[in-house]
């Protein structure tokens, strides 16, 4: 199973449908970017207070944020370490998508083995609910987007430079289109 969900907050209702959509978003993001989904990602739903504590402890920023990612694998050894926008062949919105050939053998060995825990994604549902309202879309769309964003961070993508941000955005939107929650 590509995702395990732990709800550690009580401010926003977490339905079975939301959990299923988040699990689907993780599976599709991994499949589209890695070519398989033999990773597990732990997703924690928290409130603003808890994510603010985590944000201060790990990033030195004493305020809430919407999503944090905590990789267990070294992201530099995963997809995005070559400095280019690595994309995959079955991603219709990204025509240049090709699996990273230097990693194919390693990841297909993982595919034959058991799932590897990729890391944790922590999402403030309190923040996600407010953002969904601000952006005029559903809570499900916002939480799935934050999930995909967090998974891409676990895989080594970031948005510090404009080119990296554009790549990450294309991948996020491709996954969101694939799961039926486009912008």
Textual characterization of the structure:
The chain contains six helices and four strands; from the N terminus they run βαβαβαβααα. The protein is of the alpha/beta class and 183 residues long. It has a single domain, classed as Metalloproteases ("zincins"), catalytic domain (Collagenase (Catalytic Domain)). The chain is globular, with a radius of gyration of 16 Å. Mean pLDDT is 82; it is low at 80-113.
Q: How would you characterize the largest beta sheet?
A: 4 strands, mixed
Number of helices: 6
Q: Calculate the mean pLDDT score and round it.
A: 82
Strands side by side in the biggest sheet: 1-2-4-3
Report how far apart the termini are: 27 Å
Question: Any idea of the CATH class?
Answer: Alpha Beta
Apparent shape: globular
Helix content: 40-55%
The name CATH uses for the topology is Collagenase (Catalytic Domain)
State the fourth-level CATH superfamily: Metalloproteases ("zincins"), catalytic domain
Which structural traits does this protein have?
four-stranded mixed beta sheet; 4 strands; 15% strand
Give the topology:
Blueprint lengths: L2 E5 L8 H19 L4 E8 L1 H12 L7 E5 L29 H12 L3 E9 H11 L3 H16 L7 H17 L5
Helix pairs in contact: 1-5, 1-6, 4-5, 5-6
């Amino acid at each position: 199973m590509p995702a395990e969900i732990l709800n550690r907050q009580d401010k926003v209702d977490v339905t079975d449908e939301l959990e299923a959509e988040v699990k689907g978003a993780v599976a599709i993001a991994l499949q589209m970017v890695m070519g398989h989904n033999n990773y597990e990602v732990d997703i924690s739903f928290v409130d603003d207070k808890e994510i603010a504590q985590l944000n201060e402890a790990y990033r030195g920023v004493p305020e809430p944020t919407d999503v944090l990612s905590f990789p267990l694998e070294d992201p530099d050894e995963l997809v995005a370490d070559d400095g280019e926008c690595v994309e995959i062949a079955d991603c219709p919105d990204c025509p240049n998508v090709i699996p990273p050939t230097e990693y194919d053998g390693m990841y297909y060995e993982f595919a034959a083995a058991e799932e590897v825990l990729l890391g944790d994604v922590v999402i403030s549902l309190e923040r996600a609910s407010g953002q969904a309202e601000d952006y005029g879309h559903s809570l499900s769309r916002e939480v799935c987007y934050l999930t995909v964003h967090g998974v891409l961070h676990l895989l080594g993508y970031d948005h510090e430079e404009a080119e990296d941000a554009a790549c990450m955005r294309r991948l996020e939107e491709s996954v969101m289109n694939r799961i039926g929650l486009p912008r």
